[in-house]
């Protein structure tokens, strides 16, 4: 797999003004992204995991260019200045226009660009339908006539239509029956190989990320707290929050882990961020030495900068941690 970066994010912050008073003055600010450094390479799937509200969808919007960061830089590294990025949402029911027949739904993104005749668009839709496992005779039907899994196939065909470099998959299987989830994930894997696509897979579900991505970023309160090869991070987490996430997943191989949000204590609010380590109050390893201090994302192992962690303590090499997580994987 070539390690060519398509996009890099550098120190991305997104803050939303909230609670304006009657004079229109901002009374508080939601600090949704708080210094994200990340890149996505051609042909890879980068998994982004974190509990609800940690900023995953906001990060997707920044990547797509739909949201201007308050601070930081998004850099594109493709020949055509900006790569083509499409998105597949969690709920195909609400993301597909119910008034259009499927062939128009699929080709809508390129129809908007112009330059294609109706016959050409119909042919493109027919080709894409085959690629995502839909029958050509379905093309004149409407989205409501399909099952959830089929609708997600339509959404994937739609995302493929403009020939994207990157597809952001925002919880692509969370709304589907368990039996259908694996089919959609396998389809996405096949399409990636055939087209050298880059995926950014956003999920609260560690099992989905494990199935799909070689690299994982763990998000907490708008920061990446751990980043590295998925198998290594899941086998031996280096950040206490990753460990907590994994402890909350009852069975890493079981079908039941494919559904439902991870049940953790409530995420602290993003209106009043801690001045030091964001995870301090929930951390089982905190001590009074340096744990309260803000931490950068540091490389584990100087030679190969492939694993990164934002933690004062090196729990990676702490034998107490290793014993406590042994049973969860
Ligand atoms: N425009 C906005 N104004 C104020 N707060 C916002 C805005 N957009 C998002 N937020 C807040 O930012 C936080 C992160 O939202 P985001 O949707 O990115 O999280 P998420 O990790 O994708 O969550 P989920 O998994 O539930 O979709 C939430 O607390 C949300 O309420």
If you had to describe this structure to a student in words, what would you say it looks like?
- The structure is a single chain.
- With 329 residues, this protein is an alpha/beta fold.
- The protein has one domain (5-84, 164-328): Rossmann fold (3-Layer(aba) Sandwich), CATH 3.40.50.300.
- Helices cover 30% and strands 23% of the residues.
- The strands form two sheets. An eight-stranded mixed β-sheet has the order 5-6-7-3-8-9-11-10, sandwiched between helices.
- α3 runs parallel beside α5 (148-160) and α4 (118-131) packs across α5.
- Residues 251-262 and 321-329 have low confidence and may be disordered.
- The structure holds adenosine-5'-triphosphate.
Number of helices: 10
End-to-end Cα distance:
27 Å
- Content of β-strand: 15-25%
Side-by-side strand order of the widest sheet = 5-6-7-3-8-9-11-10
Sheet with the most strands? Answer: 8 strands, mixed
Q: What small molecules accompany the polymer chains?
A: adenosine-5'-triphosphate
CATH uppermost class: Alpha Beta
The total number of structural domains is: 1
Question: How many strand segments?
Answer: 11
> Could you give the order of the helices and strands?
EEEHEEHHHHEHEHEEHHEEH
The general outline is: globular
Sequence stretches where pLDDT stays below 50 over 5 or more residues = 251-262, 321-329
CATH architecture assignment: 3-Layer(aba) Sandwich
**Overall mean confidence score, pLDDT:** 86
Protein name: ABC transporter ATP-binding protein
Keywords: ATP-binding, Cell membrane, Membrane, Nucleotide-binding, Transport
GO molecular function: ATP binding; ATP hydrolysis activity
Family: Belongs to the ABC transporter superfamily.
